[in-house]
Amino acid sequence: MEKDRVTVDQLALMLMLVIAGGKFLALPSILADEVGHDSWIVMCLVFAVDAVCLCFLLWSVRLNKDGLSVDRVLDLSLGKVIGKLLLAILFVIYMSRQIVLIGSCYEMFAVTFDINTNWLFFALPVVAVTTFALTRGFTAMARVSQILFGLVTISVVALLVNPLLSVRWSQLLPFAEAGWGNMVSCAAKQSYWFSDYIFMYFVLDKVKVRKHLYLPIMSVFIVGAVITVVMDIVFVTLYGSFAPHFRLAMSKIGAFSLGDGASGRWDWLTLSLWVTSVLLKITLFFYCAYKSLEKIFEFRHDKINWFAVGAI
Predict the structure, then answer these.
(1) Using CA atoms, how far apart are residues 70 and 271, in angstroms rounded to an integer?
(2) How many Å apart are CA 312 and CA 305, to the nearest integer?
(3) pLDDT class for 271, splitting at 50, 70, 90?
(4) Buried b (16+ CB within 10 A) or exposed e, 25-43
(5) Across 16-20, 107-111, 288-292, which has the greatest mean pLDDT?
(6) What is residue 95's predicted lDDT score, i.e. its pLDDT?
(7) pLDDT digits (tens, 9 = 90+) for 28-55
(8) Could you give the CA distance from residue 149 to residue 116 in angstroms, rounded to a whole number?
(9) C-alpha span between 72 and 85 (Å, rounded)
(10) CA nearest 269: which of 177, 188, 159?
């Protein structure tokens, strides 16, 4: 479908938003609980592996001159049964990550914005938005990411600038105190939170490939990784041994972004702008989960299967 066409620039901007979307919530607390102030090293390790894997993904995009879809590639290379099994695994991953993200968003709204509602009334509007986005196609989501990119980036920078000035770098010492064995083990175990770029496989046949493919996407990936690592450093240095007890890193960083002379909670504005990237990530995962079912059960590609949407 033409509404699913996407450019390299749109992929790059969307990648930047999804990197900043989910890792600013529960992940820093989980890593701090496992390896303490060395959590930023674990992030660097996983991002380094991610960078290599992303290069292979982009290579596959470059090689796909015939515009084959991901299910067709899997069928030709691994066979139909193995291909469907891999798509089923991706479906489970995307469903579980949606649940984790919606749960974190629900908690952030309740704790930070003092908005108390039950789970159902919080989730239903999110479901409505994601379903609407699915009917509009991937291109609509990519265009929304273009609109939000500047606002989200400014909000993240605004939240991090003041706390970054308060960072006590000595809190990061001694270096690698948790031990390299523990850190590598933690990186492998928490890799679930990374590899956000695999959504590109679901638009493998829709990408308008151009001469410069690696530079824009890899550049954005590096910037997103650096911002995420800086956020984690800010979090663990500000809260030290208490970091594992604060589930929502961005919410706690927002409190420091106010400064001593701040009047009112202007961080609510920046947090509200930033949280749109989380909602976009949930929408993207919904799209990928649906596409997994579409390819497993071989639904028609030119219309929405509402039974599959209802199942999700």
Answers:
(1) 36
(2) 11
(3) confident
(4) bbbbbbbbebbbbbbbbbb
(5) 288-292
(6) 93
(7) 999 999 999 999 999 999 999 999 999 9
(8) 29
(9) 14
(10) 159
